[in-house]
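Q: Two folds, back to back.
A: First:
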Amino acid sequence: MMKSFVTGATGFLGSAVMRCLLTAGHEVRVLVRPDSNRKNLENFPVEVIEGDLRDHSSLKRAISGCDNLFHVAADYRLWVPDPETMYAINVTGTQALIMAAAEAGVKRIVYTSSVATLGLNQDGSPSTEDTPTSYTAINGYYKRSKFQAEQMVRQLTHDHQLPLVIVNPSTPIGPGDIRPTPTGRIVLDTLRGRMPAYVNTGLNIAHVDDIAYGHLLAYQHGKPKERYILGGDNMTLLQILQAIDDINDIKKYRVNLPISLMLPMAWLMEKVATFTHIEPRATLDSIHMAKKLMFFSSEKAHRELGYQYRPTIEALRDAVKWYKENGYCN
């Protein structure tokens, strides 16, 4: 039986990858920080090892004896009071973990990057793995940290001939988003009636379980040094909000706000957050990102891995059901 080491299993996407591997017959070991919420691990037969991506010595101990690595963990926030923490986890921690895996002789590494590292087309057409971008063209600490991490991982893979495949998930939606993630908050705010307006932007939405299964497919069929977009349907923000309204059986009129109006509002929210240390509902980086349609194509993953995804409405329906059943809408 294969033993796979999974980081980020207490989180949204990582827990879905964990469940997928267990279903596929893998023995699973997970890395967990001592202070992590372990709700997503409850009742699953996994080996729990305490450690931290910032504690490099803990990584060598944790991965010892494992056949594979699925590195899903990341600090995913659109606003942080201390960006150095995010870089320590997403970049430096990733480098230490990949090297620890190489020294341990793991047979296969699947690294979870993000579509945030890819370029966007000016005409709004879906981007692919080959759409160019640069560090200076990317907005926000999270996206820049993931861009740097992926560049570093690609260099390590080349220099050390690592058996490493990169996956670039788009926007996961579904059950188990306990924090919730920034995208999950959009769903939750819509359910709570806190989304009276929208901007003209778009996202690529996929069910979290489909993206997780894409990780397994990358492990099974992915080519080392290659990267694969794991996404779903491209939808405008208004279409997403209206779909959630339909699931919730309500009709709601929303105001279309221009980006120019949202920028000063986001600036004010960030200033307040510096005192409260509560993540703002809108940030300058997120508003700048909204200027473009963040649409992507999973054709390469479909062609080379056999990746498929269900309609987005099913992902949204599962997310809404989970939030309601777990008391998030009270």
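A: Second:
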Amino acid sequence: MRNPANVAILGATGAVGVEVLKTLERRKFPVNKLILLASERSAGRHLEFRGGMHPVKAVTPSSFAEVDLAIFSAGATRSREFAPHAVKAGAVVVDNSSAFRMDPAIPLVVPEVNGGDLDRHRGIVANPNCTAAILSVPLWPLHRAAKIRRVVVSTYQSASGAGAKAMAELQSQTREVIAGKAATKEVFPHQIAFNVFSHNTKIAENGYNEEENKVIEETRKMFHEPGLAICVTCIRVPVLRAHSESVLIETERKLSPEEAREILSRAPGVKLVDDRARNHFPMPIEASGIDEVLVGRLREDPSHPNGLAMFLAGDQLLKGAALNAVQIAEMLLRR
């Protein structure tokens, strides 16, 4: 990949695409030429980057000529359609959708966890599910230290995970309910304001929804642990931005809360928030807009000799999507 690189963003006007653009600018990614792509519906808009306004164009198979890096945030259907064209044109695709995540020939990467897998890419790198990405950052250093045997996760997932329209629906429903009106449902199947419900993805034959199965399968793939025991329950909550997760791990050897704090205090991509005296632990409102995954509430599991419980929060639009994609791009550039 050239440095500086010609960069294309597909899905540039969506919630993740906008964050990708901001993250490229904030991290001073060496962009030579910027190409913003979206559907016909969004074509003609302009987005700001480094003080200039850049036009959004409708994506076509020929949109990737001379592109070095293409960051896709437009859904699995678009990714399957246009990624082959981008690769054929010579670009490396970092894809935010589910299209290629479980393809054994395509690396699924969180740089703090398995950045070395980038060495075997063939033009496409998959960005993991947001919940799996946020979970993996603090679990990986603990896994390296004490070998995780089992993980039990309950998630508290914000509206941002379903995109900009879902965030707007939470805001509009909140105003409606406060005004004594019925909540208007367009994005979510249930009222999101003042409510929680099981993640709005299809239930599979095993009884788990698509989001839960993604977390299980993708964590195993990134950790190179196909037999890792994981149980996940994914829940939508009325939070605008940033996901939270209650996590219980069982390790091969006992990992005390004190040792875990020491490991996590030095772990890349992690910020320890574990103040028992002030009862101050990770919160989505404090995780919103920052790069690190917040981790705290570290405590022994009284039901298992090698159990450790914790709570974490991470920005779904950043580490769960845009930031991770840009970090992958940075690693590709260094290679």
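Q: And?
A: The CA atoms of residues 36 and 56 lie 5 Å apart.
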